[in-house]
Each structure stands twice: as structure tokens, then as C-alpha cells.
Fold:
Amino acid sequence: MNKTTSPGTSFFQMRLVQHLAFWGLSFYILARHFAYEQEIQRVDLIYTLLFHLSLWLAVYANLLVLIPRLLQRRRYGLYAISIAALLAAGTYLNILTFDSLADRLFPGYYFISYFKASEIAQYHIVYLAAATLLKLSKGWFEAQQQQKRIAQLEKEKAEAELRALKAQVDPHFLFNTLNNLYSFALDGSPQVPEAILRLADCMRYMLYDCNARQVALEKELEYIRNYIELQRLRLGESAQVEMAVEGSAGEVEVPPLLFIPFVENAFKHGLKGDGQAAFARIRFRVGSESIFFNIENDTAPPGARLPGTQGGIGLDNVKKRLNLLFPQRHELVVYEDGKVFSVTLKINKKWY
Structure:
């Protein structure tokens, strides 16, 4: 028969052990203190127990009532007044315990309060301060842990969304290119071997490099070049495609497949391979503070969407990825004037 323990029970047990350990240590220290460096006698234990009665009352009144209802609600003035009243009550109760209650509880012993009221108040101040500090420290630590858990959950959620969004991009290029290769093969084109090699490079990048959170910008650029060359094979001389890179990619890294949806859009809506002259200009500029990307192509028809799955997830897909990856650290501008369709993306290089 298996026995399980609920998280609430385990938490209560841990709290109980912590409190027992604190008061056990307190009892031992005060018993040694009250014994005046002699062996601890029975009377010392009784005296220590009675002395703790007012301490328990003051500490738990502070922990269970004053801190949650006043201090944590920032009612500092009322909390200070309540602590002063609690100190007075604890001191009075301690004196009353030894002057009136102790002899009745333990008639075989004679007890008196050894300490002045000011000294008893000092004991209560120490315990109240320690309890308050421990309570606030524990609350701060638990709040930090909760924030970390929330941040981790948000990070995992964002990563899951990114994986889902990126997964919608990956198959699209593969299926389109395979269709192109099928057409080349039917026509007996001698360019099929070159196309297969370039497709293999693209697939290698997608399968092995794109699983990482970031990839080298140079690899992303090479992937785009391969993609463009594969599209050139399909479009022939009717397409004018230019790609220019300014600055050094160096050790710059970016999320994989970040720019390809914009390039696909140009070929889908601008460079159709219908024999008419068409153009697409792609520019990258890698600066010290930002990465600049711009692509221009013949005007896309009204309502055109960036490529994605059927149903049109293209532009929404890209915007969601950008918002997840670069919140408040990117600028995306889509412009159309009736002749040219343009997309400009600027990313702060300090995003990571």
C-alpha cells in the first residue's frame, strides 16, 4: 500500500520543524544563561519555560497578526504603535507570571522576577526583531523564487511558441523546392544536380543548425543565398535579384530562419516566373549597434500575405516571432506604394 503526502502537509511539517528548532535553541541558550554558568537544574528549566510564555505570545502575535495585517500592508505607523503596545503587554505578562502565576503552578518552588521591566522589554525587543527579520527575509526569498518560477514558465511558453512558429516556416520551403525539382526533372534540366546540392545545404542548415536558439549570421546569409540560387533556376533570366551585405557579420548571431519569410514573400508575390521582367533587392547592413534588413520587390497584389501554411499565417507568424524575440528592441516597417512592396527590419544587436 502506497502512502502519499500532499504538498500542503509537507510544507506544514517543514514549518513546524523550523519553529521547533528555533524555540529549542532559544530554550537551551536562555537556560544556560539563567543557570549563571552552573549546571542546569530543574528550577532553571522551569524558569526558562515560564520566561518563554510572554515571548511566545509576543512573537506569534507579531508573526500572525501584526506583520501580515499592518507591516506588509505598509501601515507602518499603526504597526509601530502596535509593537510598542505588544512590548508593554509582554513585559507586564512576564512580571505577572513570576509574581503571581509561577508559585501556583509550581508550589514546590519559589519564583521571583529577577529582571527589571526595562531588561525584560529588551529580551522581547530582540525576539520581536529577530522574528520580524526572519519573516521578512523568508517572504522576500519566496517572492524571488516565485518570480523566478513565473519567469521560467514565461520563457518556456515563449520558447514553445517560437518552436511552433518556426516549425510553420520550415516545411514550406522544402515543399516548394521539391516541386521545383520535380519540374526540372520532368524537363530533363541539366541544372538538377546543382539544385540538389543547394537543397542539401539548405536542409543541412534547417535540420542541424536551426535547432539552436541562435545561429551565426553568416550561416543565415548563406542559407538565403542558396535559396535565391534555387529560385533563379526556376525563374531564369526574367528575374533580377540582388543581394548586398554591408559590414562584417563576424561573430554576430541571430535566431534561425528570421529573414527567409520576407525573401519568400518577394518570390511568391513579386517574382512569379511568368516571363515578365521583375526585380527584388535585398540589403543587409551590420552595424555596431544594430542589424538592418531591407527587401524590395514588385508590388504584391492587394491582400497578399507572407508565405506560411494554408490559411495565411505568414505576416502574423513573423510579427509574433519578432515580438517574442525582440520585445521593444526591433522596428518593422511594411510599405507599399502601388509599384514597390518594401519591408524594413531593424534589430538592436544588444537584444541578447
Remarks:
- The chain has two domains: 7-114, 164-351.
- The chain is about 60% helix and 15% strand.
- The two ends are 51 Å apart (CA to CA).
- Strands lie at 215-216, 239-246, 253-254, 278-286, 290-298, 330-336, 340-348.
